[in-house]
Amino acid sequence: MSEQDNDALDLARQIARSYQGKGVPGAPGPRRRSRPVKPSRGKNEDPSTIADLLGQVVQNQGWAEKLDDQRIFTDWARIVGPEVAQHAQIEGYEDEIAHVRASSTAWATQLKLLAPRIVAKLNAELGDGTVLRIEVRGPQAPSWKKGPRSIRGARGPRDTYG
Fold it and tell me: For residue 90, which of 132, 129, 134 has the smallest C-alpha distance?
């Protein structure tokens, strides 16, 4: 072979190596397979469920009490029943006081009368002393303070009726 053929052959080998990632400076090396992660459990031990693992995390982080308090939001309809849940939404829970918004003033009055029974049901389901009191609020009244024809500092539509 001539010297020119050897140079061409060397050039071809370098190009081939560059495609394989071998022997060319700056080119990534060959891919290596990562070794499988060995589980920390014994061979005969059953795998843990995600629920068990999440339960351990909740306990370790001290979130159990806060999660129990949030059940008032998730279990509200089941505890008070479908008819009451349709007309009363839980808006907040703070310092053992549940804040409930009624769909009408009639339902707000009814909920105020039912409040002791609802508190008893909530405590039976969520744990004794979880809810001490229910504050019932009526429906949100429309605001007359904002809009294209409102005046800053005015009392709203009452001003126009003398």
Answer: 134
Which residue from 38, 35, 37, 16 is spatially nearest to 27, judged by alpha carbons? 16
Q: What is the pLDDT of residues 106-142, one digit of tens each?
A: 999 999 999 999 999 999 988 888 889 999 998 887 6
Query: Exposure string (b/e) for 95-121, b if CB count within 10 Å is 16 or more?
Result: eeebebbbeeeebbebbeebbeebbee
Report the predicted TM-score, pTM, of the whole model to 2 decimal places.
Answer: 0.55
- As a whole number of Å, the end-to-end CA separation of the chain is 114
Q: 3-class SS at 46?
A: coil
